[in-house]
Amino acid sequence: MPNPTAYREIARYCRRLLKERTGDAGSELSAQLQQWAVECDNRADRDLGRSLPSARLERARRYRMRAEEYRAVLDQLSSPAARASYEHLAQSYEAMATQLENLGIGSPASGEQTG
Fold first, then answer.
1. Range of the domain at 94
2. pLDDT tens across 49-92, in order?
3. In sequence order, what DSSP letters do the residues of 61-79 get, joined into one string?
């Protein structure tokens, strides 16, 4: 499984080493550290881009569950103002879930590369 966080940490470590080596900025090691930092950031971006569709769909599922929870509470309320408030919350979470699902459907599937 891709781990963008690990690649970001490696890139940060390379940049930290680069800052410590300011005296020999033109050295071969400094050039290599700079290259690794850029490559690790690029890899993290690619891995993060691949995992976004499934993360969006998971978040959409959680939003739908939250909407159902608000509807369950709604059935127990007697105050018209409270009922309207909970109904509005449920509708908002449903709309957010629908939007995330639409974004997930329009994105490339996990593992596919574009371009």
1. 4-106
2. 666 677 777 788 888 999 988 888 887 889 999 999 999 999 99
3. HHHHHHHHHHHHHHTT---
